[in-house]
Write a structure and sequence with these properties.
The chain has 511 residues and is an alpha/beta fold. The protein is 32% helix and 21% strand. The chain contains 19 helices and 21 strands. Helix 2 packs across helix 3 and helix 14 crosses helix 16.
Length: 511
């Protein structure tokens, strides 16, 4: 290749670059040479393009990043370090950013696009090009990858006598979350249960797709209790000879274990930039080593969050009063009736014996919408679920403190809160997915005063309603001068007491 000499450092990186697969994905730690190898592989393929009738090797490539700032400060910056303008020609900084390289018989266009602007998304769907590179693919939805594959292999055109010698998509990434399309298509995790059959079919890996995984950059060191006490460099790590010696020990200083797991250990996980709602959560302390099984004689408490992304959490008080959370239900795009049926089905599978089951939900479920005066609680009752509002307050601060109280309690030397490892969404929320959003301010780090709404917030709201309904928030509420929630006497029809604001207004009008 004209211009420089490059040699990939590591067997996985070499195999990735040698492959002819239509789609090639490379997952690795930060600093493992993923992006550089991918960019140089595009250039190598451009140099291998068969010559046209006029003796030129024509090709066109797109390089995609999720946002324009990241495209300019990371992807393009790396590109120009290897393909400087004084050797490879002027870089065009007007949109779309383009480096048109003309050296000897090579005539290759490299177009850089971000996915945060509608015009760039449309551009991907209208351009005709040879191949593409998706930089940091964990930030890109599967739909973007699908859109890229639609237009690949269209340049140079066959009508000009020579089509593309090779065409395809390269993709690199740090480890995404384990419900991202990448680990599912790589075969590392099964598809989430909430996906429809059509969505599952879209995530089946085609025969000409290949996924490569680089080794972790460091090796964990453990004490006798099995807890991580430190890290040392992994001699099998790739691209080490191109990094300064204290690189990895330096970057892990002051970082959370979840950050190290993703960026250094190359493990699937969540690394939210927000502030965790529960910083006192410790996976090694609060997550059981084995799945928690429902106890046959203890009351089962079910907390529920409503809306179009409803969730439910099931838990029991164990010996000595320890809370044991043993099951979660996380749904998407589901109405009240379907959710009620799903809850009943799940309970029939995980609750055994003659347990008493108590249901508590979001107090806002007492009110109907503008289009439907039937409340969420009434719909649950019609489907056989006798649920009550969790409390007469929906103050998120009180609800969060009710959970914090359990996380910080100890019972006979054991944690007062234990969660089953099968409750993956809740655990990921505890690890930082459920967080306070970082606010953009000048020079000062600030966070929103309420947790952000995302896929982790719904099951965590359900967990809070479970504890509030079970009485764990009473002490906190009394300390703030608030009364306990309404309790119906035996035989009282609670459902006739639940009316929407319009219904209450009509009642007063009749007096």
């Amino acid at each position: 290749m004209a211009g420089f000499n490059y040699k990939p450092d590591g067997p996985v990186l070499k195999s990735y670059m040698r492959s002819d697969a239509f789609f090639r994905g490379l997952r690795g730690p930060v600093g493992s040479g993923k992006s550089v190898g991918s960019l140089i592989e595009l250039y190598r393929r451009a140099c291998q393009q068969e010559k046209s009738a006029n003796g030129k090797r024509y090709s066109r490539w797109i390089i995609v990043r999720n946002t324009n700032p990241q495209l300019k400060t990371t992807t393009i910056k790396t590109w120009l370090e290897w393909f400087p303008e004084d050797t490879f020609g002027k870089f065009n900084w007007s949109s779309p950013y383009t480096h048109h390289i003309k050296i000897d018989d090579l005539d290759a266009e490299f177009i850089f696009l971000s996915m945060d602007r509608p015009e760039d998304v449309r551009k991907v769907l209208s351009l005709e090009y040879t191949g593409a590179f998706a930089n940091e693919a964990r930030e890109l939805p599967k739909a973007v990858i699908d859109g890229m594959t639609m237009r690949i292999g269209r340049y140079p055109s066959m009508k000009d006598g020579v089509g593309p010698t090779w065409c395809g998509v390269l993709a690199d990434t740090n480890a995404p979350d384990d419900d991202h399309w990448w680990p599912i298509m790589a075969g590392d995790v099964p598809p989430p249960e909430h996906l429809s059959e059509e969505e599952r079919l879209m995530l089946i890996r085609p025969d000409d797709w290949e996924f490569y995984t680089q080794p972790p950059a460091m090796i964990e060191e453990y004490n006798q209790d099995g807890r991580v006490t430190g890290y040392r460099i992994n001699p099998e790590a790739e691209n080490l000879k191109n990094l300064r010696k204290p690189y990895y020990p330096s970057i892990i200083t002051g970082k959370r274990k979840t950050w190290i797991d993703v960026y250094v250990m190359n493990r699937y996980g969540n690394t939210s930039e927000g502030r965790p709602v529960y910083p006192m959560f410790r996976k090694e302390t609060h997550v059981a080593r084995e799945p928690i099984i429902c106890m046959e004689s203890a009351t089962v408490y079910v907390g529920m969050d409503f809306g179009r992304t409803p969730s439910a959490v099931l838990g029991q008080r164990g010996p000595g009063g320890q809370w044991r959370i043993f099951h979660e239900i996380v749904a998407e795009g589901m109405g009240a009736t379907r959710f009620a049926k799903l809850i009943k089905l799940e309970i029939s599978q995980v609750v055994h014996g003659s347990c008493t089951i108590k249901f508590y939900g979001d107090p806002s479920g007492e009110y109907g919408s503008d289009h439907d005066e039937q409340t969420y609680f009434q719909i649950l009752r019609a489907n056989g679920i006798q649920a009550s509002p969790a409390a007469n307050t929906n103050d998120p601060t009180i609800r969060i403190e009710a959970v914090e109280k359990q996380l910080t309690s100890m019972i006979d030397g054991m944690p007062g809160f234990l969660i089953s490892p099968t409750c993956q969404t809740l655990i990921k929320g505890f690890e930082g997915g459920y967080n306070y959003t970082r606010m953009v301010t000048s020079g000062v780090e600030r966070f929103d005063d309420k947790p952000c709404k995302n896929r982790y917030s719904h099951p965590h709201d359900a967990l809070q309603y479970l504890f509030m309904g079970a009485g764990e928030g009473y002490e906190i509420m009394r300390g703030r001068g608030q009364s306990q929630p309404f309790k119906a006497k035996r035989g009282t029809d609670l459902w006739n007491r639940i009316r929407s604001p319009r219904q209450k207004h009509r009642s007063r009008a009749r007096i």
